[in-house]
Amino acid sequence: MNIHLRGGKTAPRLLHDLHSYDPQKPPPHGFNVLTDIPLHDEEQKKPPPPAVGKGSCRHEWSLKHNQCSPTLEDEPPEQNLLFIIAAYCAQCRSHLEVLLDFREGDNFYPRCPNEDSLLHHFVHQPEASSPRQSGTTFPGLDHEFAWVDTQTFRCSSTPCYAKLQIRIKPPRLIPDWVSQLSDPFVIKMRAEKAIASDPERFEGHGVPMPIQVLQRMNAYISDAMNVHGIKKRIQGKNKRFMLNLGEPCADLLEYIGFSREGEDWLPPQPEPSASIPFTNPDNIRLDDIEKELHVLISKRPDEEKRIFKYLHIPISAMDDMKRILGSSDYRKSLRSRTIDLTKQEHPFYAGLGSIEDFHDDLITFAYDRQILTDPDNTPYYLECLQGIAAGRNSEDLRTKAAIEAAGDKISFSDIRAAFKSLGLAADAPHEDDTIIGIFKSRIADAPKQESELRRALKIIGQTRESQKIQVVASQVVTNYEQALSFLGAEPNTSDEFISTMFTIKINDRPADQHTARHAISLIANHRNSQALRNFLETGTLGEVEMDVDTAYALLDIHDKAVEDDLILTTYNVRTSDNPSQLDSLKNAVTVIAKARNSRRLGDFVNTGMISSEYELSEWPVGLENIGNTCYLNSLLQFYFTIKPLRDLVMNVDEFKMPVDEESLISKRVGSRTVSKKEVTRAQQFVDELRRLFQSMITSSKASVTPEGQLARLTLVSSSKEEHIRRQSMLSPARPSLGEIHGEPVYGPLGPPAQAVHNDSEMADDVGANSTEVNTVQGAYDHDVDSSSDVTLVDGLALPDHDFMILDKKEKSLQQRAFEDKENLPPSKSSIRESSPEMHLVPLGDSSPSRVNEQQGVSVASKEDVKKSTDPTNDEQHSPTTVTETPNTQMTSAAAGPPTRPPPYPPRPKPIDTSAVLEAEIGAQQDVTEVIANVLFQLQCAIKADSVDDSGEQLDQVKDLFFGKQKSYTRNNKGAIRTKEEYMSDIKVDVASGSRDIYAALDGAYDVQEVEVGGGVEPQYTSISRLPPVLQIHVQRVQFNLTTRSSFKSNNHLQLKETIYMDRYMDSDDPELLERRQQCWRWKKQLLRLENRRVQLAKSDLGMDIPEILKATQAYLQNLTELDDEDSIEVPPTLIQGIEDAAREAKAELESIESQINDLNSSISSQFNDLRKIPYRLQSVFIHRGYHNSGHYWIYIYDFAKEMWRKYNDGYVTEVKEVKEIFVQEAGDRPATPYFLVYVKDEFREQLVDPVCRDPAVEEPSKETQDVEMQDYNQPAELEAQVTSYTPYVPENGANESYQHQEWPSGEGWNNRTAAGHSW
């Protein structure tokens, strides 16, 4: 078995391994003792390969105090976010940096160790590490190290999320320099050469000892680092200098930082007032070399050290590293006091990332962390736990191991034993069928060992993650595939042979008769095989259906891979040519439908109609348009796919806000107090939303219809609703828009209608009597199956028109209209300008009314209008009754004359025009206003988990959709003001031209000039916390100051499937801010160049300036070449000057183009390496049309299926070509992205679940029972309709709904625990 362990290590284990980690001498087999976890096999006879390389150093890490932060040993770690421990090895002189960074964790929670997480548990991050690469061993020209080995780890505790980085660097003094300083022979040769150069001057001087040379160099460095003393130059002729170092050590002196001045050497110039920890490279280099010189001196013989009185005691760095890693006083086992230090630690401890002196509780903690971070290798970690329990003879650990094994976990020893029981080698490759065959033969040979063999097979199935093997092992038969496997059949096995295999099965094993009958039942239901059903009831096989090959042959189809549409086309042709074969041909299609598991063919056989090509249980439902509600439908589809939000809505009763006065007194949403009325309205909204979601889950149809009440509550905020109510008491009578199911019409409309004179005013109502019925509603009641199939109108619909039925021949017209709704006539203005005699013909149920193909207004004749507006006309106040005729058409009939005259004079009474006002508000609603209204109501409806410092409610909705951003404003005195606030979306625009998503986002976070107190100050914004669901609003509606009118910008926004938000984050890292500032400077320069390019490249003549100058020069030149009588004298200097100007302008334009390209390249690549915070594109709201009209639809990505779907009102289809989304179509009104949704990449599977379907099974109609086809993926036993939503429940019984999810933390997502859910 090829196993790669990916677990972590506790802090004590990591420090233990840090002593043995030597990147300079790695082991030959590639094992990394610091980052890798050893794999130990108890059955292997040969010893494991060494964990460290030959000759590697067992480090003794000593502290470099001047490079550590914090410096006070008694400073509590809780007060800092970043810790740095710098050390050097007192043996090999290697350098070490340990950086512990808490800045990306959740400061709301206590750091590790704590009650929940007893120690830090660090998991290696290979993608963030840079191991040592083989290469040069010499320092670079910049005086840095020859190489740096960087290993990065993360604490696996979600709230902690500490980042640990370990950097190991080689000694600064390379072997050649060490030889010059400590090799007696090299020192002797150098000193004798100096003496020979001037014997008289060096008379009485001898060859220095190595310790003298080392101390002399150390003295020079100490003098250079002395910030108070005067740094002395070294005389080149100084006798001590020449004897100890001299010219042969020039390269070493230059590396250290000495510089020449004639024959003399000037000492290094480190930063004189450097604070601790050192950050200046010169100070760090001198400090490192000083520590290495101490190591070299300490290795000199004791005799030398006694003579020259050397004494230096290094301070161990281990205490400081233990302190910052929280492992100073962890709980130890009592047996650790008697551990034999000469005996090697068992590898099982390293396997769990623990060490031998751990208490049993810490061993358990380490095991739990390993299986949490590396569940695939649970068998090995369980074996480590079992081995340690046995070695310690610990009852607690044995109990823990027994509980784990009882919970369906298996160990390595279990796996080896399982393979061995079947006579197989665990590490050899085997096919599933081979293993199953061996298992069956073993059972046949030894039936008494069946239970033992089944357990072994189950373990093998779990290990291989083979569903096929596990089904055979457990004998569980719950679906079609398992039924076939139980009987040993294949999908193409005929019914006749299935019955034969059933007989053989129960003859061999009579005890399996019940399971075998259940398997036959599943197969019969899946295939809809009456023959197999008859076999179960009578024991004899009924009429056997034709096989699939015969079916294709009967239809004369030779290619079995053809599309369903071609099969249906062939069927229609064959039945037309051979009507007598209708039954046989239909049976052939039935057989092919079963073989293909094609719902499209199956529905055609059942109903004679072509339906959706997708399986209902595996495909989202559409939402019918109930009157220009395409945007609302897109929004509802988006919210449905966000699994935490959907779970919250479906389980909202658990979170509902109490409406008593005491509970509401402190409720604040959107920085304001919320009233009881708003909470009640919001809960009504959530209840309506839950009903819709329930219908979307359980509907047995391809689309459902939202309720009008939900549309009103979604599109109209509570404040707008109150405004409407007040306006309705003040407004005169206005035309009604009609109703759907008793609800007024909502949604975006066309531009407001122009005023009309009273003589053509359309009647609002037929009377003021409470019993009046709108005739439009009467027409809708004729067929209310899909309210979006009705054209919404103003005024009265005339009763003498039948409904228009559109048949299949108009399918292409339907599709074109459906894709381009906004091209159809506006609903008001154009109709009002048309003939008064023009009447609307309402559309029936068979019409593709969701395309709103008729957006007209039925207008009464002038005579009727005159009657309706005449106050003396009694008919105006006559109640209108609605009757149903035998042919089901609804008609209007006027009642008799009133029994008493109307009051005189008539008192004006307020007329409720809320439907009109709401519709107009719907038309004016901004996308973000609607979304803000939805989020506001969701928050109002539920209880708070907690509140922030301002009293603002914090809850699941806030956590999902709201982030925080911080603005920085610098005044003219250099002072910076900051302001942090919530944000639910990022607003970007494409007004100035097409751009990519990063350029658009830059516009929201780049520095800009803002007016403050009459002055202008620079301001920029950063994101301090990112929400998991990131919403981006593309502001396309612009205002033309010249025409004083609004318009929609159709400039292309180039989307990316993945964006990285690192560049926009609020960070203490000065490098990130410097990068952003550099980018801003480039953009400022780019703007200046682009403005200059416009000056040079654009003109009213259609030519750029160089071309104009060149044409002018040519024209003047032609003037000089005319005949003598017509020639015009042109000064030669003028022609030459214009030619020079043209050349210079062209050169400038080319230079500008080059600079612009370079700047654009620099800007686009400035942040390419920042890829730690990826967000994936999940939804794209699309709009086609003008700023005040058009059509919306939405694309939503299914991460599980790796496919895009298009949700266009009642239709949901697969996107075959993604360029439909990412490439802008040609034309003056292209479909453009209006609103984008990105989700945090690491949580996409928890956040997004587009397909949540559990359709109810409908009873077949009597007309279709003889050819009924079942839902092939749905067992027939599911007879009861699903009437309630049940979130997925894992095997352990925990409800995996929104409030119980375990959400990992990450950049920009502040995790917290409240109200029973952990984020």
From TrEMBL:
Residues 861-877 have a biased composition (Basic and acidic residues). Residues 816-912, 1284-1319 are annotated as: Disordered. The keyword Signal does not apply. Its EC number is 3.4.19.12. SUPFAM superfamilies: Cysteine proteinases (SSF54001). Signal peptide: none annotated. It comes from the Eukaryota. Residues 846-858, 878-892, 1294-1313 have a biased composition (Polar residues). This is ubiquitinyl hydrolase 1. Residues 1135-1162 form a coiled coil. Residues 621-1241 form the USP domain. It holds the Pfam family RPT. It catalyses: Thiol-dependent hydrolysis of ester, thioester, amide, peptide and isopeptide bonds formed by the C-terminal Gly of ubiquitin (a 76-residue protein attached to proteins as an intracellular targeting signal). Keywords: Coiled coil, Hydrolase, Protease, Thiol protease, Ubl conjugation pathway. Residues 898-908 have a biased composition (Pro residues).
